[in-house]
Design a protein that fits this description.
The protein is α+β, with helices and mostly antiparallel strands. The protein has three helices and six strands; from the N terminus they run αββββαββα.
Length: 115
């Protein structure tokens, strides 16, 4: 019986350590504003906390987003302004993606792209 308890405690400890390690994971997106902000800006967009200092913006969240990178980009551009660059979950937008993102944000998200 003591061995069963020891195994149960070991399993519980492993589960708790895995949960803590998972909670520490931070999903990060980055953007650069076409027109730098005069003052630091903070906003919550789709569960991510965005902080902009001048042109550099960083969004961090503890859970992955359900939005596609394009949808996330459109939401960020709609709230923070025209973007000169955008990167989310390791995907960097090229000039065409950025143009589509910024245009859709201006049009209220009317333009759609499958990215």
């Amino acid at each position: 019986m003591p061995r069963a308890k020891l195994l149960a405690f070991a399993a519980a400890g492993a589960f708790l350590m895995a949960a803590q390690a998972d909670a520490a994971t931070v999903f990060r997106s980055e953007a650069k504003l076409a027109s730098p902000a005069v003052q630091p800006v903070s906003a919550t967009i789709s569960g991510a906390t965005w902080h902009c200092d001048a042109a550099a913006c960083v969004g961090e969240r503890s859970l992955p987003t359900l939005d596609s990178p394009m949808r996330e980009c459109r939401k960020v551009a709609a709230q923070l302004g025209v973007l000169a660059s955008f990167k989310s979950d390791g995907q960097t937008f090229d000039a065409g993606d950025l143009k589509a993102c910024n245009t859709a944000a201006k049009d209220g998200g009317a333009a759609s792209t499958g990215k």
